[in-house]
């Protein structure tokens, strides 16, 4: 973002520029004049978005300049090579009312420890639900503080309006990286003398690319703003869903950007479905249609699935399919739930003609002609390993009814995805459909350092991809459907060798235990697929989840933990815990990793799990427009490539379906 500053402002910014790394006054706004969307923002032609302007008046700290709050700021917009106009003239809008508030922030860790926040007064305006239709570069200029200017260059991409795909399936392996796929292949597919006898479904895709996952104001992303980038073509701040983060206190007034599902439904009348093994209000599923600065607004997100955005005029999408966990966001407080306005959302959805499904048996027999809400457990759904191998752990999942009985009849990702396709295909006709299907617990189990469960979830994703291709082929829909498999971000995971777990357990000294790790030629062969004789499906899963020789695997960033590199048979792992309640100080969980090596963490002690990493993540593409997904590119290009394949760019306002 280009800043032309008055002398007073320039001096203040020079002093303050060394801070704002750990903390920021406001992401993507390094100056005292903020324009959202910010510099370098891209747009789909005809995509709706909001503009938020803020002028900041620091009252203390290194950015204090002694000027009064500027309430008379100006804002112009013009296409490159053309005369800029006041934004109200450019869009034929009325001037919105001036808003004012204040907020505090810490300039750095020293200020935080000293509990000395900086106070900032704000004057702001918002322009709602506007669109740019003519491709090219635009310059947005905010004038404030006696001659200071903040300029943002915006690019409206030139996309064809011709539709090339009738349907799109977007598979998200949350947190999935190439290294994880490699490890999953190793434990799920047999090899002889270094040659695999079978390969994964993803391996067979004709096009492979990679996407860069950076946030707008930090190079490490979370699942909310990374999913928002995939769905809107706009970068944002951690925790944000399809908005740019402003500094107001309201998590729902931030400037919104229209998502691929919203544009697709608005322009074509196409049908939309969401499938996830997470609680359904989690960030990745929420990113299809939700707009909030705080991904934790679960109750409001569920309400958005049913009723759309309520506080502003916006594009609302009729969701045909919603499958996942998170029942506590659907039943009211009398049953222990936490819902928006304490409503019973099973009743709310049923009142709008959704069939309510609460177990696998009912899912498989459900009508394909009706909209469907399928919620199968509280919180996240049971992991593949617990549904298929260590089934006693299903007692740890609670029924979606709120009666606190175990949820023993849960579907898997494949069951939910194939049923979602059947419903979407039956209901959409010639309009087509868009489905997002998420293997959420690859990420959740990597966070917990539960590598076996994470790889099991990845193999289930691959099994689902394989089944989806076969199913679409059997219904003659494959050739008109773009299938994408990618991730929203990654973890710093890899496999470095093998571990002799018997030898490890027999040693009494940690330094001697390390001799159990075999590297290079001592890594040997995979014992997961070459030993045992268990069979779960017609696809490739380990035949032995508890071999003597396991994988020497791990992350680059961890809490304190004890590693024995053995499968956790009693349920998902808890690697670190507070020894003193509410201390915020986590140590290796004394009940985890029996007989393993005690390893010091590298993360702040408040962390009891692993964190995301910088790594690029893979993109697999098959079907119409597959060639668009070759190479290495920004995460936002996933959105623009899908939009091009659906033919959603518009050079003029269109009649909404």
Automatic annotation (TrEMBL):
InterPro entries: Alkaline_phosphatase (IPR001952), Alkaline_phosphatase_core_sf (IPR017850)
Assigned keywords, A-Z: Magnesium, Metal-binding, Signal, Zinc
Annotated positions binding Mg(2+): 174, 282, 284, 438
Signal sequence residues: 1-20
Cofactor names: Mg(2+); Zn(2+)
One Pfam assignment: Alk_phosphatase
Basic and acidic residues bias: start-end ranges: 563-572
Matches recorded under Gene3D superfamilies: Alkaline Phosphatase, subunit A
SUPFAM superfamilies xref list: Alkaline phosphatase-like (SSF53649)
One MF annotation (Gene Ontology) recorded for this entry: alkaline phosphatase activity
Top-level EC class as recorded in UniProt: hydrolase
Cofactor: binding details: Binds 1 Mg(2+) ion.
EC number, as in UniProt: 3.1.3.1
Annotated active site: 223 (phosphoserine intermediate)
Stretch list, region Disordered: 563-603
Protein family (similarity comment): Belongs to the alkaline phosphatase family.
Official protein name in the record: alkaline phosphatase
